[in-house]
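Case study 2.
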Amino acid sequence: MLYGCRNSYELNMERGEYYYNVGAYESAAIEYTSVVNHYPRDVGMLDEKTIHMLANAHHNLAVIHLKRATQTEDPIKKSSFLEKANAEAKQAYDLYPKDAYKNTWDSIKAITSIPS
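Prediction:
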């Protein structure tokens, strides 16, 4: 009964957070990506709650990609993960300019020397 009040993408977010907290980053990324891919790039028609959820999904993907980058020794994979992390962090901040999102994005840019 409790789950009836939430849509499937809110449940994807919850599962993503669970997987993230237990260190299952691949599973978490799948859940967050499901949320991100469901909504259009033009968020003008979305309500504030959905925009916050979408921004959070992008931010969490950025953090996962950053963690993956720091856990690999392969320079090509590291670069790829950092590029993905930067794009996700920028998208999160663009959707909802929250200090935490900006701090993550700034941290990624400092590591990669990517300009704003």
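The chain is about 75% helix and 0% strand.
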